[in-house]
Specification:
Elements lengths: L8 H38 L7 H4 L1 E3 L3 E3 L2 E3 L2 E3 L9 H10 E2 L12 E2 L8 H24 L2
Antiparallel strand pairs: 1-4, 2-3, 5-6
Helix pairs in contact: 1-4
Length: 146
Amino acid sequence: MMATVKVNGVELLERQLNRMGRPMIRQIVEAGAKAAEKRMAENTEARKHTRNRDMLESIGENEYREFLGGGSVEVYPQGDDRKGVRNATKAYVINYGKGQRPTTKRKKPNKTGDKFITGDESKAEAVVYEAMKAESDRLIAEINNE
């Protein structure tokens, strides 16, 4: 009797991912974060939110957080500008706008933001996904060529 082994694509991918380990998963996540940083900086410049470039130059990733089966990194403007204003707060206000909703006493409309971050979510996700996939493919090819 001869032994046979059948492996489908999902099992093969799962084995490859298991061989990757935490450091490689971190590399994949960080590759996506770099793509997100670049995309956010491009959007910030395209919408001309660069009065003194403090917010633009502060776009970066926060600390890598690891959890069961993966990890995450958030990308947004970090730190404070030269006047002590949080860059993340400035980005939030520019994105969502400021002001109060009209009430019965006040008929002034809400000043809405230009959605330079949230208006680009689907395209940014695609860019991040492609960067992470490219890094994953590179790492899997590296593992298979050992």
